[in-house]
């Protein structure tokens, strides 16, 4: 390579600080050395990255582009170093697992506990991702496994059903509808609804929209929040009722959960690439199957 991580680190420090003196302090280097390294980078690239005057430092258009790329490169290099250290310290493997809000409150923690009991030497990296993003990242080999809602088809992805949940209406215990055994879509359509955003809950929102449409209603959301914590906070504050898949484990007595009178069932699948199933991945799939029996039978 014509430049190395030292050049990129120095450039990122200067680009973020827009001041050579502060960048040098941050890097614990002499200011002339930082200036020389950045100049070397510009000469090797044959591109001006910074506009310098006696009063200020400013990024050029090329500099702004390189800053974004350099930050990503340095982050990947740091992640690789950490992974090497983990492997050297006895960690035999790292599994990158994606999960959605629906799977994250109970199913994934239960599977992680089951897996870690017999595989303590494997590190789990759990990352919240929407179902569509998980599919993409599995295909791009950026995650190893993912917990995905809804139906999908791909010749490159293997999947197994691990959970099946009813749609539930969640509300404050004192709400009039809490006295009912089941809640109809007609009844919910007359209420103020709180829902996760389409950006964060794309698959589940579509499932709920379809359920409302089949009953002759358009889903009207009074208030959105991007996280389950935010949604439940709004519900407990009396802002409205929400619809969720199953009952969040940590609701306690602050939330009343009533099943919806619809045939809709939300399925969660564990997915991975057909090629290259490692031993650690196979053990994770087996742990998922053991745990999923409770979620599929309702026990």
List keywords for this structure.
single chain; 299 residues; two-stranded antiparallel sheet; D-Maltodextrin-Binding Protein, domain 2; alpha/beta; 9-stranded mixed sheet; Arc Repressor Mutant, subunit A; 11 strands; 11 helices
Number of strands: 11
Mean pLDDT: 90
Order of SSEs, N→C?
Answer: HHHEEHEHHEHEEHEHEHEEEH
What kind of sheet is the major sheet? 9 strands, mixed
Distance, first to last CA: 58 Å
Count of discrete structural domains: 3
Main structural class: alpha/beta
* Number of discrete helical segments: 11
Quick rundown:
With 299 residues, the protein is α/β, with parallel strands linked by helices. Helices cover 45% and strands 22% of the residues. The longest helix has 28 residues, at 61-88.
Polypeptide structure, described:
Strand 7, helix 9 and strand 8 (223-225) form a beta-alpha-beta unit. This protein folds into three domains: 5-88, Winged helix-like DNA-binding domain superfamily/Winged helix DNA-binding domain (Arc Repressor Mutant, subunit A), CATH 1.10.10.10; 93-162 and 267-297, Periplasmic binding protein-like II (D-Maltodextrin-Binding Protein, domain 2), CATH 3.40.190.10; 164-263, Periplasmic binding protein-like II (D-Maltodextrin-Binding Protein, domain 2), CATH 3.40.190. The N and C termini lie far apart (58 Å). It has eleven helices and eleven strands. It has 299 residues and is an alpha/beta fold. The chain is globular, with a radius of gyration of 25 Å. The model has no long low-confidence stretch (mean pLDDT 90). It has helices spanning 5-17, 20-27, 31-45, 61-88, 101-104, 107-118, 131-139, 185-189, 202-214, 228-236, 279-297, and strands spanning 50-52, 57-59, 93-99, 122-128, 145-149, 157-171, 193-196, 223-225, 241-245, 256-259, 265-273. Helix content is 45%, strand content 22%. The strands form two sheets. Strands 3, 4, 5, 6, 7, 8, 9, 10 and 11 form a nine-stranded mixed β-sheet that branches.
């Amino acid at each position: 390579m014509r430049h190395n991580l030292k050049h990129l680190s120095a450039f990122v420090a200067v680009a973020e600080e827009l001041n050579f003196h502060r960048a040098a302090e941050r890097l614990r280097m002499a200011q002339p050395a930082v200036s020389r390294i950045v100049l070397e980078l510009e000469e090797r690239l044959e591109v001006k990255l910074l506009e310098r005057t006696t009063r200020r430092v400013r990024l050029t258009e090329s500099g702004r582009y390189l800053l974004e790329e350099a930050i990503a490169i340095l982050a990947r290099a740091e992640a690789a170093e950490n992974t090497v250290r983990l492997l050297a310290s006895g960690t035999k493997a790292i599994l990158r697992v994606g999960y959605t809000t629906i799977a994250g409150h109970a199913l994934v923690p239960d599977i992680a506990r089951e897996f870690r009991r017999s595989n303590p030497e494997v590190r789990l990296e759990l990352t919240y991702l929407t179902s569509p993003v998980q599919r993409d990242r599995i295909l791009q080999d950026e995650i190893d496994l993912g917990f995905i809602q809804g139906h999908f088809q791909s010749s490159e992805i293997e999947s197994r059903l691990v959970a099946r949940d009813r749609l539930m209406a969640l509300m404050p215990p004192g709400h009039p509808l809490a006295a009912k055994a089941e809640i109809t879509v007609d009844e919910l359509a007359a209420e103020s609804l709180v829902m996760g955003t389409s950006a964060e809950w794309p698959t589940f929102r579509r499932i709920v929209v379809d359920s409302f449409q089949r009953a002759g209603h358009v889903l009207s959301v009074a208030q959105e929040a991007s996280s389950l914590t935010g949604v439940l906070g709004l519900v407990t504050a009396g802002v409205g009722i929400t619809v969720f898949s199953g009952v969040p484990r940590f609701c306690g007595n602050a939330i009343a959960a009533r099943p919806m009178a619809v045939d809709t069932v939300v399925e969660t699948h564990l997915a991975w690439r057909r090629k290259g199933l490692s031993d650690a991945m196979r053990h994770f799939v087996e742990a998922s199957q053991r745990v999923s029996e409770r979620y599929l039978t309702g026990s």
